[in-house]
Design goal:
The chain is mainly alpha-helical. The protein is built from 27 helices and no strands. The protein is 75% helix and 0% strand. Helix 6 (109-125) packs across helix 12 (284-292) and helix 16 packs across helix 17 (405-432). Residues 1-12, 57-64, 546-564 and 649-681 have low confidence and may be disordered. GO terms for molecular function: spermidine transmembrane transporter activity; urea transmembrane transporter activity.
Length: 681
């Protein structure tokens, strides 16, 4: 496995947690409940002041499709700000050198930006949708709907397990809290505030959590230089250089950390790119957030969020892994006098040990907080995604086709509770069979990738037929699993947890899983192409009640505005396509590949520039995720405060919000999201 490159000391050796169990339970349970109660309060305030009623399905699931650019960008960053993004990027930095965090970041940003194209296409073609699966059902029918439901649920389950395993290991290492207790208690607060607030609660808690996480990460980026053993970037460079001269990294140019020429790094980059395309495209929470954004916020929100996110794994992964490698043999390091064990590495403890090294107990508290904030924020998106599948795609479609608004809300609540419990139980099972963050980080693409291209074709290519849509992802999953297990057996002689987590079997399996469906889909589609009419999506009304500040737009108004709105949305689609291509070329081709091919080894000045640019970019991400939503949403924030502290109350806020909404409507494409629709399926 990529993280077992070095000989290790006794695996039974453990580092004494710097914090008490009480701190762990206070964070996981106490802060979780405080956030949940805070969301109850905020939800009531928003209902009273600006009329955001989470007892209505459209508000609970799609926030009335009115979320602005700033909050959308923050939510996009939060959606990828997994605990594993920080823990995992530090892990691959430690095992693969400077190439590891870069490839981790490059494996995330292109598909986030690409999703802007899918999101705006959905806005244009089926503006009343709540989930990806509604699109699949309308275009391809019941069988395809069930197949994609399975694919999406597998994606959500694997993603949650990856998050919970990494976060619980980090919290246990920091506090000594029982790891099973951590796995089961982490989803409690998530379930509570998602139960109450729905997708708007997810957006708001995403914002709050992301802001806090980035403040702590930026603090770490400054605090590291105050440690006497580090002192400066130049000194850190010398420490890293000396460390990898003594313990070279296999597969890297001259065994050094300081190069982009890394065999394990580029293999991980390929694996991570494919796996993350699957995690984005097959994650219904990304579609829900796109449906929740206003039409003019989708593309800029996803582009800004995707590019800003790049700095988090790059900057933190590079800094943390550099410090850990450089100071691992120093008395201030937690494991001194031994090096880290493979169990500690695979458990993702590079970042926690980095924080303890530079900030002691304060660093341990910071890691516990950011791990908790990251896992609960991303879990909330997963929970609301599965809740939407249970309520819309199972209950409303197959159990009660005449379901009312109240019925769907009730089943959404059932879905929140069920999935929170199931995710914890499934993660516990994986823990007991010996699976950890490292294993899930490497293999998850085998299961998340088969639906990538069939789903993209369903939204962008009118010729993919139902047979191709149904068969190609299933054949792709079978192909990927067969290649994965076959490679593990062929290369290492057995199929075990250890061999199936090795780099090469995971890369081969993920690539096969991602790209074989293209062949299957194209062959089956050209055999009998569908030639789907996108206008057919509008024949089925999906929204319960979408009120545009009380304004009911007539069918005649819609028809008069349709041509203009379609042109505007198509323009946003072209912008999204250009940015998708540019981001992929920049982050994956033009920047890293020449450096990989040149076999260049960083000098002191180049390493300093590399790290300084990454840290400046990280601080820019803090602005995008923390301050931009406040600037962008200042009018509604002021309206809420005026309503709370003035006698006129809700009337003042409603008038202010209406004025803002009217201005927005004048600038935005007119879609059917502005119609009052009260029609059951």
């Amino acid at each position: 496995m990529a993280f077992e490159l070095f000989p290790r000391a006794d695996e039974s050796l453990t580092v004494k947690p710097p914090l008490s169990q009480g701190v762990g339970y206070a964070v996981v349970v106490g802060i979780g409940l405080v956030i949940a109660l805070g969301m109850v309060f905020v939800t009531r305030i928003l209902k009273k002041t600006v009329g955001e009623d989470n007892e209505k399905t459209e508000m609970f699931m799609t926030a009335n499709r009115s979320v602005r650019t700033g909050l959308t960008a923050s939510a996009v960053i939060s959606s990828w700000l997994w605990s594993t993004a920080m823990l995992g990027s530090s892990l691959v930095g430690y095992t693969s050198g400077a190439a590891g965090p870069f490839w981790f970041a490059a494996g995330c940003s292109p598909m986030i930006v690409f999703f802007a194209l899918l999101g705006i296409s959905c806005k244009r073609k089926i503006p009343e949708a709540h989930t990806l699966l509604e699109i699949i059902r309308i275009r391809y029918g019941t069988t395809a709907h069930i197949v994609y439901m399975f694919l999406c649920l597998v994606n959500n389950i694997i993603a949650c397990a990856n998050m919970l395993l990494g976060a619980s290991a980090a919290i246990t290492a920091m506090t000594g809290m029982n790891i099973i207790a951590a796995i089961f208690l982490l989803p409690v607060g998530v379930a509570l505030y998602t139960f109450v607030g729905g997708i708007k609660a997810t957006f708001l808690t995403d914002y709050m959590h992301t802001f806090i996480i980035l403040i702590i990460l930026c603090y770490f980026s400054v605090k590291a230089w105050t440690v006497p053993e580090i002192g400066s970037i130049g000194n850190l460079y010398e420490l890293v250089k000396n460390a990898t001269e003594k313990n070279p990294i296999a597969g890297n140019q001259n065994g050094t950390y300081l190069t982009m020429t890394s065999k394990n790094g580029i293999l991980f980059g390929i694996l991570h790119l494919c796996a993350n395309f699957g995690l984005v495209i097959m994650d219904t929470s990304f579609f829900i957030k796109a449906f929740s954004a206003s039409p003019r916020a989708v593309v800029p929100g996803y582009i800004i969020g995707g590019i800003a996110y790049f700095a988090i794994p790059w900057a933190i992964g590079t800094l943390a892994s550099s410090v850990v490698l450089g100071l691992e043999s120093d008395p201030i390091f937690p494991t001194y006098p031994r090096r880290m064990t493979s169990t500690e590495i695979s458990g993702g403890l590079i970042l926690p040990y980095f924080a303890i090294t530079i900030a002691g107990k304060g660093g341990a508290i910071g890691i516990t907080l950011i791990t908790f904030m990251a896992v609960t924020s991303t879990l909330s998106a997963q929970v609301i995604a599965v809740s939407s599948i249970i309520s819309f795609d199972i209950y409303r479609t197959y159990i009660n086709r005449a379901a009312t608004d109240r019925d769907v809300i009730k089943w959404s609540h059932y879905g929140v509770i069920f999935f929170a419990i199931f995710a914890a139980a499934f993660s516990t099972m994986l823990h007991y069979v010996g699976v950890d963050l490292g294993w899930t980080l490497y293999m998850l693409g085998v299961l998340t990738c088969p639906g990538i291209f069939p789903t993209v074709f369903a939204i962008l290519w009118r010729r993919q037929n139902a047979l191709a849509a149904i068969v190609s992802p299933l054949l792709g999953m079978v192909t990927g699993i067969a290649v994965w297990l076959g490679s593990a057996h062929g290369l290492y002689g057995a199929v075990t947890i250890k061999t199936t987590g090795e780099t090469l079997p995971c890369v081969y399996g993920t690539v096969a899983s991602a790209f074989s469906p293209i062949i299957y889909s194209v062959i089956l589609s050209f055999w009998k192409p569908q030639n789907f009419d996108w206008a057919d999506f509008r024949n089925e009304k999906l929204a319960f009640e979408v009120v545009d500040q009380g304004h009911v737009i007539t069918t005649a108004e819609l028809e008069a505005n349709d041509h203009q709105s379609q042109d505007q949305l198509k323009r946003w689609g072209r912008i999204a396509a250009y940015w998708s291509i540019a981001t992929f070329l920049g982050h994956w081709i033009l920047w890293p590949l020449p450096m990989h091919a040149s076999k260049y080894i960083f000098g002191k000045s180049f390493y300093a520039a590399w790290l300084i640019i990454a840290i400046i970019w990280l601080w820019g991400t803090l602005f995008v995720a923390g301050f931009y939503p406040l600037i962008d949403g200042r009018k509604q924030i002021l309206a809420v405060f005026k309503a709370v502290f003035s006698k006129t109350g809700a009337k003042t806020a409603a008038e202010s919000s209406n004025a803002s909404s009217v201005l927005e409507r004048e600038q935005e494409p007119k879609t059917t999201t502005g119609v009052l629709v009260t029609k059951d399926l």
